[in-house]
Input
Amino acid sequence: MHAAGLVRGRLAPTVDRALTRVRAEVGHYGDPLLAPTDLWESAYLSLETAVRSLACPDRFAESGAHAWSLAARRARQGMPLLALLQGYRIGSTVLWERLVEAVVDEAPERSGAMAHAASDYWRYVGRDTALLTESHRRTIAERPPGGERAMLPVLRTLLRGHSDPMDVSAAAIVLDLPLVGRYAVVRSQGPGRDPAAMEPVRHDVDGFRLYRCPYRDGHAVVVPLAERPVADLARALTLPPGTRAGIGPAVGGLAQLGRARELAELALGMCGVDEGPALLDDHLSAGLLLARPDLAARYADTVLGPVLDLPPHDSGSLLETLETWLSCHGSTDRASERLFCHRNTVLNRLHRLERLTGKRLDRPRDLVDLTLAVDAHRLTGSGEGAGIRP
Output
């Protein structure tokens, strides 16, 4: 093809243009944690091979062979098939645009022929796309040896919320997990975490198989539950010193792991260091607050504003008394024992809090407001718009 000869040796700007679109339109390539480290070099080689095949009819098969080997390599790296196909099609589109531009600029007398060449070009792209798809599927099905580290890109993709049925099916093969079933995600944070640390990706704890994916500040762990309750998982986990963790409720399949991670992170936000894993199902009201920390902070300021305006020692004493009284199920005597003060002191503080807020602890709706507001203040910190505690 004459157009291919015009662009040979001048592909670098075309590669840059293609990768700009690929990174913007395909999430896998736009994420620095997921994108291949050799992306530019690989894209250049793909376009160069395509142009060479188009320019020389006797080398027409080379692009197909390249597509086959590229798909196999990306499958072993854990790249989803959908992302690979999207990237390939964008690259093919940008290359076609460049071929047309080259003919219009340098051989305008041949411009009319490009309309007839279009069907041949896209038939050629269709052949390579079919080879790309088949190679990727075969590689995934064969489960080539590559160690458990090859599972990490697949785990990261699922935990980011990728739910394309084709890619989730491929992930199930890579991870040797059922597509449909009960899963939980554990999200942990701890000191000195290195996402490149060589820890086992898959290991067993008390009958649970854990799939561990390192993050910069800790881990996300995918756990197939079968019929066991999430509470059993919480009891089975042993956290290293200085670590906190949250566990979301069970979801119904691999395609929902992104949502499970989000829920686990809500649970993480209400867990203190060295307290053991927090189950979101045990703290759903706090989870509602953490889902919108800006509104939670606003809620605390609206309900508790006059209390929060007091000097810190004074407001802290009133809020601590309210929290202690609530944790003692409204028992003034037990709250006074925990606070090491007389029960009348507890009553006086609670009455003062009622006067300041205009809420009464013996009115159910007011009690709900005060309970949620003090939780919101604890979880989001003082000041409107404060974030979840680090």
